[in-house]
Amino acid sequence: MTGKLRLPTVLAVVLAAPAAPAAPAALLGQQPAITLEQLMSAPFPDELVAAPTGGVLAWVFDARGARNIWVATPPDYRGRQVTAYAEDDGQEIAGVEWTPDAKTIVYVRGGGANSRGEYPNPASVAAGVEQAVWASAVTGGTPRKIGEGHAPAVSPKGDRVAFIRKGQIWWAALGDTTPAEQLVHSRGTASTLRWSPEGSKLAFVSDRDDHGFVGVYDVATKSLRYLDPSVDSDDEPIWSPDGKRVAYIRIPAAVGVVPFTPRRAAQPWSIGVADVASGDGREVWRADSGRGSAFREIVGRQQLFWGAGDRIIFPWERDGWTHLYSVPADGGAPTLLTPGAFEVEHVALAPDRQTVLFSSNQDDVDHRHVWRVAASGGKPTAVTSGTGIEWSPVPTSDGRGVAFLRSDARRPPRPALVAGSGPARDLAPSAIPSDFPEAALVDPQPVIHSAADGMLIHSQLFLPKGMRPGERRPAVIFFHGGSRRQMLLGWHYLYYYRNAYALNQYLASRGYIVLSVNYRSGIGYGMEFREAIDYGAQGASEFNDVLGAGLYLRSRGDVDPHRIGLWGGSYGGYLTALGLARASDLFAAGVDLHGVHDWNTEIRNWATTYDPKTQADFARVAFEASPMASVKTWRSPVLLIHGDDDRNVQFSQSVELAAALRKQGVAVEQLVFPDEVHDFLTHAHWLRAYHAAIEFFDRRLRGAATAAARQ
Predict the structure, then answer these.
(1) Given a cut of 60, is residue 22 above it in pLDDT?
(2) Cα–Cα–Cα angle for 563, 568, 574, nearest 5°?
(3) Is residue 7 scored above 90 in pLDDT?
(4) CA-based radius of gyration for the chain
(5) CA–CA gap between residue 707 and residue 694 (Å, rounded)
(6) Quick one: pLDDT band at residue 255, thresholds 50, 70, 90?
(7) What is the DSSP code string of 617-678?
(8) How far is CA 305 from CA 199, 258, 277, 349, 637, in A?
(9) Could you tell me the CA-to-CA distances from 615 to 529, 534, 611, 620 in Å, in that order?
(10) Segment (H or E) for 476
């Protein structure tokens, strides 16, 4: 976009929000009252999981890059650390599993390999790293390495753990140090290991690229059977309580589906149930054509749940919203469990299979709360409410409580428990540093403003404390990644966006006005918003939201219209680059973290069969929707931040953009992390990236000559 932008009528509504308490402002040019290190000091919780007995809970805390297993036991539920990893070495902990007696925790340490078989090593450890399955006693002590691999599944008998190594199924004994051995030799790539209730059989998914099977391995007979094989892709197997049947999702075969384009309908997906003894299966439910015909997942340890009364619980977008339904395992009409204009996200089934716990934005679009509903149907009831954010509900094995993770606008994410009708209480309150600057933060305000094409967009507005009447401040717009994400009115439930929220708060503490934009193609507002017409590689319709956000800020009396910047990561980096490329007269500078710059390059990262030469018409549209197509009108300076082991967005995208911008004479600054992946694995790299972003914006947006130069 080359000419001066013409300011249209801008619709903006600031919804009612609690006023922040008065406090001295961190004025421009002065040292803020808080530091970035303080804002990112609280440990981030994840992998919350209940033991199968005893009411015990476990989770992972990432404390400044040192990741460890924590547990809390009844009756006091006072959290304590089990493992003792002390370094910010970029080695993740995931795949947390309990043994049946709740005495041992099995987990994975280290990230998955890239296409060259290299494990993430962002600390550049010369001796190398690996991804391996480990076991630790709940009482502590030195963990025992089970073997190289990931995705552990502990047998209900408690004697063995199965896991995946290089796409094949392995297993090892838990009671001794016998080396792990390969359990199943099969074609394809194995995943989704699920033991039968009595531990005699192991179900799994065998991905064969353009199709997929559900297989069942019989431990006693050492035999392998595939259930109702077809040309389609079967996934997410679950066992019936009696261990005689397996239910699964069937996604119809499709050719030429391109990612990062709207998909409002597809050949309808279905649920099948197979008899394990014979391998014969039959369809028990099929989605309607149109809305909901393309499968939409929820967040959980599984996508299907076998509930009480022989009912299968599943997600479906029949009415354009992600909801839960249940259907008899023998077939029949589905029952809607979660009616309303909202989206279900995190889901878990109670041990008695009678109740489903879930998080949603019901009646509160900018938050998440925990709800429960009977597997057979009925009115959902709230477990949590208020101005906080609650997610990842987990019922305790004794049925006496519900654990979950929670945060709010000022207090960071942390594990909590609610028992009976009493108030929720934190499980590890002492883990949050005493100097965490909770009182110094601002409460973001919900804002609805118009995009350039008139669509209404939800955002969060961070206003610095101590602003004087008539004062105009520099402003920064943040775009989340994904794009299947939604920023909320508080600390986010994903680590990447917990960090982004910290930076937005820090920018506000330094005097910037910050607008965090929930642009089209994100979640939380229904299927049609998520699958927006011409979004992404099919036309970049989100640019209307980028432009509308800039025009909204330019219309505000407290924003300097010549000092508006952009920042974002991944898909947010794409929108940052697109805004700078097409509207440098509106956006003065930008920070682009590992952004997409050419869709034709990015798509091949996710769809290996995509060939721009054979899909020339689409490839042309995809390129025109890319920042690289508008480099000639890009004039504003940019800071590019990227790790060169990025498996989501190729490092080459930043290489090619930097070369093109330099030819145009655009100021390009860079910060490169050797061996780092997409979602930075070390705390030190996050701090370096964010400090570089702050320093860049301070130079480009806060200088006294900035406004005059742009005029």
Answers:
(1) no
(2) 105
(3) no
(4) 25
(5) 18
(6) confident
(7) HHHHHHHHTSGGGGGGG--S-EEEEEETT-SSS-THHHHHHHHHHHHHT--EEEEEETT--S
(8) 18, 30, 21, 7, 51
(9) 27, 17, 6, 9
(10) strand 473-479
Number of other residues whose CB lies within 10 A of the CB of residue 263: 15
Tens digits of residue pLDDT in 427-436: 999 999 999 9
pTM score over 0.90: yes
Contact 268, 289 (CB under 8 A): yes
Measure the CA–CA gap between 397 and 419, rounded to whole angstroms: 12
Residue 420 confidence (pLDDT)? 82
pLDDT of residue 608 exceeding 80, the answer is yes
Among 264, 244, 268, CA closest to 254: 268
Taking only the tens place, the pLDDT of each residue in 534-557 is 999 999 999 999 999 999 999 999
Q: How far apart are CA 702 and CA 707, in angstroms?
A: 9
Q: Are 162 and 152 in contact (CB under 8 A)?
A: yes
* Tokens describing residue 493: 């439930």
540 dihedral zone (left: phi>0; alpha: psi -120 to 50; beta): left
Task: Take residue 552 and report the two structure tokens written for it.
Answer: 């909204």
What are the distances in angstroms from CA 672 to CA 293, 334, 601?
42, 51, 20
Q: Residue 687: which pLDDT band, with cuts at 50, 70 and 90? A: very high
Output the DSSP codes for 479-504: E-SSSS----SSS-SSHHHHHHHHHH
Q: Which of residues 5 and 396 earns the better pLDDT score?
A: 396
Q: What is the dihedral of CA 53, 55, 56, 59, to 10 degrees?
A: 110
User: How high does pLDDT run on average in the chain?
Assistant: 94
Tokens representing 582? 């097409």
C-beta separation of 376 from 329 below 8 A = no
